[in-house]
Every structure is written in C-alpha cells, then in structure tokens.
Amino acid sequence: MSVFDAIDTRRTIRQYDQSFVPPKEHVKKIAEAAIKSPTGYNRQGVDLLVVTNKDIINNMNDKVFDALDEDAKNYFRTRKELGLEKFITCDAPVLYVLYANGKTDDVYARLDAGIMAESILLTATSLGYATMPIGTFMIGDLSEYGIPKDKVLLAIAMGKARAGIEIPPCDRNTKITYLE
What we know:
- By secondary structure, this protein is an alpha+beta fold.
- It has five helices and four strands, in the order H-H-E-H-H-E-H-E-E.
- A four-stranded antiparallel beta sheet has the order 1-2-4-3.
- Helix 1 (3-9) packs across helix 5 (106-126).
- The protein is globular.
C-alpha cells in the first residue's frame, strides 16, 4: 500500500476483532517505524511502550477511566453501545503508549509524539490494521509501568477491525491556503 493510500484509507476504529492477535513481527515493525520518525533537533524526546498483554491494557484503561471527571466518564460510557468492555482502549489487542523521556522540552516532545503517532498510524494501516489515537491517556498515572507521572503524551490502540462494522467516509473541513 502506498503512503497516499494509507493516508486516504486510515480511519479511527473503535471495534476490534477479539479473536485476532497481530503477529509479533508486525507489532515490532510498527514500533520500529515509529522510532525512525524525525524529531526536533534530533533530541528524540519521546519513548514508546508497546503493550500486548491484555491484563496490562485493561489495567491501563481502568487507570485512565478512573482519572476522568464524571462528564467524561459518561461520554466514554456511550461506547457500551458498541459492545465494548473497556471504553478507553476499546478492547484493542495492542497499545502503543508514547511518553516524554525528558530529552527535550514539552513543546518539542508533543510535536515529536505527533510525528511518531502518524508513523504508527500509517504503518499499521499499510499492514492492514485498524487504529485509534487516544489523547485521553495523558491524564492517567502509568508510573507502575515505568512511565513517569504526567509524561504520557498519547496512546494508540491497534488491531484488526471487527467484521461488518460501518466505516464512514471522512469529510475534512480544514482550510488550505496557497500563497504563490
């Protein structure tokens, strides 16, 4: 799949096939693509935690959910309609957690994480997987997994899309201006 095809076909998916586990070599290939992403001043200020253990993913989901205020919890509870048990990670079998490692300031760490996230999203799409960026992860305390508190930038859930789900077209309303 070309990079243009990956950009055109990637969508946020919240329903994953629970019987499918991505091969380790694909999980690793996606992680390796992520760390090859460019970074501000080449400081490489973002590290990556790759989680494939369902119990750990579920525990992380619960920590993030518990840190939400009641309005946000109610919003995420609407995902129960999709048949989900875990409303933040959407029961995905793989989770990529991007976090600041202190090698650069917060502004560049966030920028680097965005670039790294796009590498994860497009590589996963090119391999036939569905993904979902999760900004909410930044409020969770994942220090028990070696990530310093308040350093999580975002997470990306990944897996195979559940068969039969409707994937709506993506309409963009972002303005492009050309100066010539």
